[in-house]
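Project outcomes to date are best conveyed with an example. Our students and postdoctoral researchers have been running inverse folding experiments weekly, and each run begins with a structure described purely in tokens. The record below, which covers 287 residues, was selected by the lab manager from last quarter's runs and is presented without edits.
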């Protein structure tokens, strides 16, 4: 396959969130710093928002892998389309908490005891809820109730709500104003600029083990940026297909023409007038 052809030890542009490939652009560095500040300062509630494919899940997984297990206990709830009780059960399961009564009261009691034990041991508990825009208002209210578990001096759990921009609309609901007011740290991810896009591509190629210089020509990078608008997931899709096409042509360099051909093939005939961004957003929304 093309990995052997280009000298990769692994595929450089998969769309699966992988902290091993994390690249912090100037925009991502700022958001990552805010996340760390919120956790370390025990802010209580932190919100991370960004469009589809901007790298939220990768950033969250990277954050969790960097937390020292001797000082932190963390859990990630992904795509939580569940009831309030199911969410509590999921949180207990992710933290490895054994519960007596399997109902809302039993889960809360067990969670509170766990948080107190971790606090006494000097550990910070971090709960990350990804795709939080999918939570129903009553479930978000339950999340707020979890944050009420505290000592006289400190919050017992740091909660990161991550999601698409629609999360902000949900939080602005009148019946969720108490939750919205408790979010003291807010981070927003946007698409990368051209220079960061070029560095992002070079970074992933390097991590994948290639020693070939300039696999993607400058012109190819510019076209990838134009069609992806600097969105990491769309960059990955384009680069992956461009590498495959270059390999089939036995070309060691991805040219602008190859990128143009990939874009044309990704667009269905009946939808040629659509931008690639809109097409791929539909294909990969929520993944």
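After processing, the design step wrote out the following sequence:
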């Amino acid at each position: 396959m093309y990995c052997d052809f280009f000298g990769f030890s692994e595929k450089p542009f998969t769309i699966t969130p992988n902290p091993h490939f994390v690249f912090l652009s100037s925009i991502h560095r700022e958001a990552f710093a805010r996340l760390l500040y919120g956790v370390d300062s025990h802010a209580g509630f932190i919100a991370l928002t960004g469009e589809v494919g901007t790298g939220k899940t990768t950033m969250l997984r990277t954050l969790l892998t960097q937390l020292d297990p001797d000082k932190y206990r963390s859990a990630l709830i992904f795509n939580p389309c569940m009831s309030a009780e199911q969410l509590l059960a999921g949180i207990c399961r992710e933290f490895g908490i054994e519960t007596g009564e399997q109902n809302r009261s039993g889960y809360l009691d067990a969670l509170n005891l766990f948080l107190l034990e971790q606090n006494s041991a000097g550990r910070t508990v971090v709960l990350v809820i990804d795709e939080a825009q999918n939570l129903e208002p009553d479930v978000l209210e339950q999340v707020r109730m979890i944050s009420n578990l505290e000592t006289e001096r400190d919050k017992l759990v740091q909660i990161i709500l991550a999601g698409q921009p629609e999360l902000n609309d949900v939080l602005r609901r009148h019946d969720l104003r108490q939750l919205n007011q408790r979010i003291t740290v807010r981070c927003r991810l946007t698409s990368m600029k051209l220079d960061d896009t070029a560095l992002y591509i070079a970074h992933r190629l390097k991590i994948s083990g290639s020693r070939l210089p300039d696999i993607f020509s400058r012109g190819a990078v510019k076209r990838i940026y134009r069609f992806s608008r600097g969105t990491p997931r769309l960059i990955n899709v384009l680069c992956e297909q461009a590498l495959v096409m270059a390999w089939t042509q036995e070309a060691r360099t991805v040219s602008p023409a190859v990128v143009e051909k990939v874009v044309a093939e990704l667009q269905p005939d009946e939808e040629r007038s659509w931008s690639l961004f809109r097409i791929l957003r539909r294909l990969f929304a929520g993944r």
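The chain has a mean pLDDT of 88. Strands lie at 45-50, 72-77, 124-129, 157-163, 183-189. The training component of this project remains on track.
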